[in-house]
Design a protein that fits this description.
The chain contains 8 helices and 6 strands. By secondary structure, it is α/β, with parallel strands linked by helices. The chain has a 6-stranded parallel sheet, sandwiched between helices. The protein starts with 7 loop residues before the first strand and ends in a 13-residue tail after the last helix.
Length: 226
């Protein structure tokens, strides 16, 4: 399954839970955003606009660039340069859509892991440019083939369409029975790294897989056991 092409310049800066100081990360992100050329607008994306009050450095950033969130109606015309600060998976998807044919830089937060996005986009670490992007998780060929088949069938609908849960559960069960089965975290990270499944779909697959490992049974959307 071919990954969706990344149609923007991608970069990231170490965020929380690292030795890199948050204010230094925000300053570096501001410098990056100001330096982007050939774009019509530059915006900062956060989970909610009120988050600009969380740190003085974010307040200073707000004096230079508009802040938008997934609830915003207008973020300027494309192409855009976008700085996503502490995004959830949902906010990151919003930032990606804004950055099409432009540029996107992400400062990770503590809620959702953006490592799959870094691997998929090949984003440059602005703090340590010589550092290679992380690779997608290593899983067996059999597990990868099964996951890609599942995603081809229902990934575009986040596995909520007709027959998609019925296809996904048996496939995940086959993966769970493998001697070298991947972890739930690797399941979620791998499908996110393809770019063909959104955050909700990847989380849904992980939760189904975790329940299968616990011996849970599943019903389809009509109440029949799968």
């Amino acid at each position: 399954m071919a990954a969706i092409p990344v149609r923007y310049e991608a970069a990231w800066i170490p965020g929380f839970n690292t030795d890199f100081h948050p204010d230094e990360a925000i300053w570096l992100g501001s410098t990056w955003l100001a330096s982007r050329k050939g774009v019509r607008s530059r915006v900062v994306v956060m989970n909610a606009k009120k988050m600009m009050d969380n740190r003085p450095s974010l307040g200073e950033l707000a004096t230079r660039f508009p802040f938008v969130s997934p609830q915003s109606r207008d973020a300027g015309g494309p192409p855009r340069a976008v700085l996503a600060v502490y995004p959830t998976n949902t906010t990151l998807a919003f930032a990606e859509a804004l950055a099409l044919d432009g540029a996107l830089c992400v400062i990770p937060g503590t809620i959702d892991d953006v490592t799959p996005w870094i691997a998929r986009s090949g984003a440059t670490n602005l703090a340590f440019p010589e550092e290679a992007p992380p690779a997608p998780p290593e899983i067996s060929d059999a597990a990868r083939d099964e996951l890609e088949s599942i995603c081809r069938f229902g990934g575009h609908n986040e596995f909520l369409g007709g027959g998609e849960k019925e296809r996904a559960i048996p496939g995940l069960r086959r993966i769970a029975l493998q001697s070298d089965r991947p972890s739930p975290e690797d399941i979620q990270a791998y499908v996110l790294s393809t770019g063909d499944v959104g955050a909700d779909g990847a989380r849904r697959l992980r939760e189904w897989y975790e329940k299968l490992l616990q011996g849970r049974r599943f019903k389809d959307y009509r109440g029949r056991y799968i």
